[in-house]
Amino acid sequence: xxxxxxxxxxxxxxQDEYPDATLTLANSHDxxxxxxxxxxxxxxxxxxxxxxGTYVNGELACIPNSTPCDNRCxxxxxxxxxxxxxxxxxxxxxxxIKD
Length: 99
Known about the structure:
Strand content: 5-15%
Mean pLDDT: 86
Shape: elongated
Strand order of the largest sheet: 1-4
Organism: Camellia lanceoleosa
Protein name: GDSL esterase/lipase
């Protein structure tokens, strides 16, 4: 939370220092919560399991050279830490393209 509260002013300072730069502040947390609350609206069928994941030494991880699931667009998460490419496209659409 301290990071989130300080980020707008930090971005303003950077923008002031580099006026030709284009910076965007987006709230991915709230969008993720919306996706979790209404998975069908976004087209996901699995928002808990990763598409690429196997437990290795008690940790959920992708095995190098393993084959991820066939239906990747149905998963919110690609692995234990990262959202899927499909989810990232939704983030871009809803945070950067929408008015």
